[in-house]
Structure formats: C-alpha cells, structure tokens
Amino acid sequence: MDHADLLLRATRFEVVRKVQTTPDGKTLAREIVCHPGSVVLLPLLEDGRVVLIRNYRVAVEDWLVELPAGTLSRGEEPLAAAHRELAEETGYRARSLELLLSFYPSPGILDERMHLFLATGLDPGPTELDAGEQIEPCLVPWPEALQMARDGRIRDAKTLTGLLYYEVFSRRS
C-alpha cells in the first residue's frame, strides 16, 4: 500500500482509504475498516450442551443466535479477552481455553482477525453486560445447535464458522 488516509475514527474501529499501486502501475483506492480484532468462544458444558446467546444486533435490527464474542481492548491479548468476554456475556468462567482457529470474517472490507477459543471446565456466575447490550444465554444440546445452523436459525458467520469448524475438525478427533 502506498498510503492510507483516515476517514473516520470511531470508538471501536477506524475507516481509512488505502491507495494501492498495482503491478501494472495503476492506482486503486479502497475504503477499509481497521479493527483491533476480536474473540469468539465455543463454550461447551460437560453434559454436551453449548452455551449460545440471543443477542439484539442494531445493525440488522434483529435478534441473532450467536456464540459469545467481543472486541479486543487496546493492547489486550486474545486469551485475556476470551476470559473477559465469556464471563461478561454468559456468566461462565472457563478453567480451560484452547485456541482453535484465527480467521478473517470479511477481508474484502475489514482487517479484523477473529480468534476462536474452545471453552471447557465451565463454572457458572453472574453476567457483566456492557451498557446497552441485550444478551440472553441459551444452553443448547450440540445436535440441536448443528440443526439450528442447518435450518437457518443461526445466521451469524462467526457462529457458523465456530460450530462447523469444531464439528468437522475438532470434535471427533
């Protein structure tokens, strides 16, 4: 990239215009959302249920069923954020967090990197929701969570990624 111009600075992200010089010498301008990264948690209870949340999302003006997740604070390591977000959104504390995957949810416009953690050894506790968050934890048997992904009740990309990645690559190994 040749340079980037700041277009917007918001609380959790920035929007910049990056100008790229292509191999044939042409220049292209692209608007990019610069995000500090985030964590996604796949919390599994010992009885095989997964802890999902119902979360009201203003951007789509609807309730979505999701895995708990959240944005990294400035300078925060993903593991620390994973512990924090799990407790805040579900009330559970994990004795074990294992990084399963890091991925880019929408690299055409966004540089955010999401870190998917498997959370086990869960102990219940109180939630600590941020101001304005509307979140309801839901304990769902694993087969039902997969059915929800299959039939469209789960429409959130990070949740689909987390459930299906674990089912295909981790659960049976």
Overview of the molecule:
This protein is of the alpha+beta class and 173 residues long. It folds into two domains: 3-33, no CATH class; 36-102 and 113-170, Alpha-Beta Complex (Nucleoside Triphosphate Pyrophosphohydrolase), CATH 3.90.79. Helices cover 21% and strands 43% of the residues. It contains three helices and ten strands. It has helices at residues 78-90, 142-151, 157-170, and strands spanning 3-9, 14-21, 27-34, 38-43, 49-57, 62-66, 69-71, 93-103, 114-123, 135-141. The protein has a four-stranded mixed sheet with strand order 7-4-9-8, sandwiched between helices. It has a three-stranded antiparallel sheet with strand order 1-2-3, with no helix packed on it. A hairpin with a 5-residue loop joins strand 2 (14-21) and strand 3 (27-34). It is globular and about 60 Å long. The N and C termini lie far apart (41 Å).
Mean of pLDDT? 94
In whole angstroms, the N-to-C terminal distance is 41 Å
Main sheet strand line-up: 7-4-9-8
Q: CATH class of the largest domain, please?
A: Alpha Beta
User: Structural class, from secondary structure content?
Assistant: alpha+beta
Radius of gyration: 18 Å
- Give start-end ranges of low-pLDDT stretches: none
Biggest sheet architecture: 4 strands, mixed
Secondary-structure element order, N to C: EEEEEEEHEEEHH
Q: Overall 3D geometry? A: globular
Instruction: Provide the CATH superfamily of the largest domain.
Output: Nucleoside Triphosphate Pyrophosphohydrolase
Strand content: 35-45%
Q: Give the tally of β-strands.
A: 10
Number of separate structural domains: 2
- The helix content is 10-25%
Number of helices: 3
- CATH A-level architecture of the largest domain: Alpha-Beta Complex
CATH topology of the largest domain: Nucleoside Triphosphate Pyrophosphohydrolase
